[in-house]
Amino acid sequence: MWTGVIGDFVIGPVFLNGPVTAASYSLFLREELPGLLEDLPLNVRQRMFFQQDGHPAHRSDLAVAVLNEMFPNRWIGIRGYDFPARCPDLTVMAFFIWGFVKSEVFKNGLPEDREALVAMIRQAFRLLTPQMLSNARNTFAKRIALCLEQGGGYFEHLL
Fold first, then answer.
1. For labeling, which of 4, 30, 67, 114 is most exposed (least CB within 10 Å)?
2. What string of H, E and C letters represents the secondary structure of 36-79?
3. Collapsing DSSP states into helix, strand and coil, what is residue 25?
4. 32-72 pLDDT, tens per residue?
């Protein structure tokens, strides 16, 4: 699954068919991602950073080559722009969106099958509002400031 957040907009979620491999992920980046981003203003696309996790397909030679071409010096991940490992406290997706989506998906128990899970994830993402995303961005700025004050150390207890 892939999801993007840019400003007050959520792009996705997009569910890839089959296992995520270097080839399937690179194909997604090259063929599907541009269509998902086409409604963004050109100046936003030219300045945006692409962030991903450490999945093996994401750091493959094939994916790295595609990312370097599409987002030169503007992608975050293993073998990309230097970003502290395991720092979910600093990403809006990790400290807010994934928690919100998981709580919505599982609030009534486990989904029956993959199709139900996908439907529930899509529904949870539709519940995200521009105001919620704006609040998360404001919290992000506070988290960055606290992280700097703590010299890069733990700061959650200060929130």
1. 114
2. HHCCCCHHHHHHCCEECCCCHHHHCHHHHHHHHHHCCCCEECCC
3. helix
4. 999 999 988 888 888 888 888 878 999 899 999 999 999 99
